[in-house]
Sequence to fold (77 residues):
Amino acid sequence: MLYAISWLLLLSPNAGLLNIALMQLLGLEKAPINLYTIPGMGFVEGLRLASLTFLMTVGVFRSMDPSLEESGLHRGG
Fold:
């Protein structure tokens, strides 16, 4: 809940601090970023899940055999 509220305080179309700053800086009448759209919600959810995805995959990548990576480099070029 706090995560969603923090993003709304930053990028809400009417009262978001970053949107207000961008509107004043660029002289816009309408907010350039709207979190109340599907892409906006996807952006916030993607940022939230990026750290979880990294933590779930970092162990697998560390235990992977380095020779596989080296053979992939030579094969792709």
Notes: The chain has a mean pLDDT of 86.
